[in-house]
């Protein structure tokens, strides 16, 4: 393709997920471009430009309305869609013939469920947004994960009418619902905006966070998470990596080197723990003390003996009670916390593997690599590389 590619990006810039995806697209364009872009700041509602007049060659779009779908089909340009619904993915639907980028909502929800259960919660709730496919998928997976562990979930019924969703009307409704929940309780929200709203409602209702109600969102929109009071924990998605891969796929489509529909997935990376869920909620005070010590000191070169001395119980007694309450041994929990922090370093920094090993409490890089491979099925270097290359599947 001789001309400079011109790509319309109909992606919400008001959300952290969209902005991170745009960063990945821009990173690819800088390496393989130059590319020209059409982008309009905004939320989920977007408008397709007059592609022929503009000279557009490709589109990456959230297809929120039939009007946008019609305009895309009329353009006859290579297009990658974002988060198609189950109906749109049916073989008889025209949009099913497009390549797609989707967040792995099910895995993100399971990660949030695991995070809250590992904090010791035994009562759970979910707050979503009506008529958003990714919210529905996260709700379904969260409920399934919690029920599979033997617990129940209370689901907030989000208003479907736009007028009822206006914050001044929904705010008192959400407060009443939160007040009626059993406490203490762990709550997942479908994204960080919803998480911030739940925290605001808790503040209005006088519900203590995280002592009575812990909250974890999705997307790790750092601005929204830090604006929340208290700061919001969130599942980080590999949106930048999938943005890079989407640009790579679109480039091949524009050069007519790829025609079959593909599905690219933004996988969840880890939970970024902030104050909204930074608590251990266990009936056994000594086990809670041991768990807190492990979480606070995992990056230090501690062993199980250090935990036992801190709690001042016999090792056998503490091991039995810890296993009964947490479902893992203290050694397994120490390794789990270290590996989660290692993944965060591998995701967010470019520091060398030996430095990562030292930063998360391993005395030698070789032992760190051995433990990481046994747990994750790949070396730390392979994990870091996979964040860009990522998994892809046929739609």
Automatic annotation (TrEMBL):
HTH araC/xylS-type domain residues: 288-386
Xref: CDD domains: PBP1_XylR
Entry keywords, A to Z: DNA-binding, Transcription, Transcription regulation
Molecular function terms from GO: DNA-binding transcription factor activity; transcription cis-regulatory region binding
Residue runs in coiled coils: none
InterPro entries: Homeodomain-like_sf, HTH_AraC, HTH_AraC-typ_CS, LacI/GalR-like_sensor, Peripla_BP_I, Tscrpt_reg_AraC-type_HTH, XylR_PBP1
Gene3D superfamilies recorded: 3.40.50.2300, Homeodomain-like
Keyword Transcription regulation on entry: yes
Xref: PANTHER family: LACI-RELATED TRANSCRIPTIONAL REPRESSOR, XYLOSE OPERON REGULATORY PROTEIN
Protein name: Xylose operon regulatory protein
Taxonomic lineage from the root: Bacteria, Pseudomonadati, Planctomycetota, Planctomycetia, Planctomycetales
Name of the gene: xylR_8
């Amino acid at each position: 393709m001789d001309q400079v590619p011109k790509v319309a990006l109909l992606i919400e810039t008001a959300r952290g997920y969209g902005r991170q995806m745009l960063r990945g697209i821009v990173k690819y364009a800088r390496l393989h471009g130059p590319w020209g872009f059409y982008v309009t700041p905004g939320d989920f509602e977007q408008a397709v430009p007059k592609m022929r007049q503009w000279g557009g060659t490709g589109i990456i779009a959230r297809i929120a309305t039939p009007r946008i779908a019609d305009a895309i089909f009329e353009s006859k340009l290579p297009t990658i869609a974002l988060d198609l619904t189950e109906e749109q993915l049916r073989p008889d639907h025209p949009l099913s013939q497009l390549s797609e980028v989707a967040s792995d909502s099910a895995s993100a929800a399971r990660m949030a469920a695991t995070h809250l259960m590992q904090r010791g919660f035994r009562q759970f709730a979910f707050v979503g947004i009506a008529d958003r496919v990714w919210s529905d998928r996260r709700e379904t997976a969260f409920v399934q994960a919690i029920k599979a562990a033997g617990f129940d979930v209370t689901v907030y019924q989000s208003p479907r009418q736009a007028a009822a969703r206006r914050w001044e009307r929904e705010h008192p409704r959400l407060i009443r619902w939160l007040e009626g929940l059993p406490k203490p309780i762990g709550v997942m929200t479908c994204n960080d905006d919803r998480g911030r709203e739940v925290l605001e409602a808790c503040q209005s209702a006088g519900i203590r966070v995280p002592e009575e109600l812990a909250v974890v969102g999705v997307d790790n929109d750092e601005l929204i998470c830090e604006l929340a009071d208290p700061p919001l924990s969130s599942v980080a998605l590999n949106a930048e990596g999938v943005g890079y891969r989407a640009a790579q796929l679109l480039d091949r489509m524009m050069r007519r080197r790829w025609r079959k529909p593909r599905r690219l997935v933004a996988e969840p990376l880890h939970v970024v723990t902030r104050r909204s869920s930074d608590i251990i909620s266990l009936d056994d005070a000594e086990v809670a003390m041991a768990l807190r010590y492990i979480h606070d000191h995992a990056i230090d070169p501690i062993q199980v003996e250090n935990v036992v001395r801190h709690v001042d119980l016999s090792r056998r007694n503490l091991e039995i009670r810890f296993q009964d309450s947490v479902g893992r041994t203290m050694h397994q929990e120490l390794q789990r916390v270290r590996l989660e922090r290692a993944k965060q370093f591998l995701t967010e920094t470019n520091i060398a593997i030996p430095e990562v090993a030292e930063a998360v409490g391993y005395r030698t890089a070789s032992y760190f690599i051995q433990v990481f491979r046994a747990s994750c099925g790949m070396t730390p270097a392979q994990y870091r590389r996979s964040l860009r290359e990522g998994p892809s599947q046929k739609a």
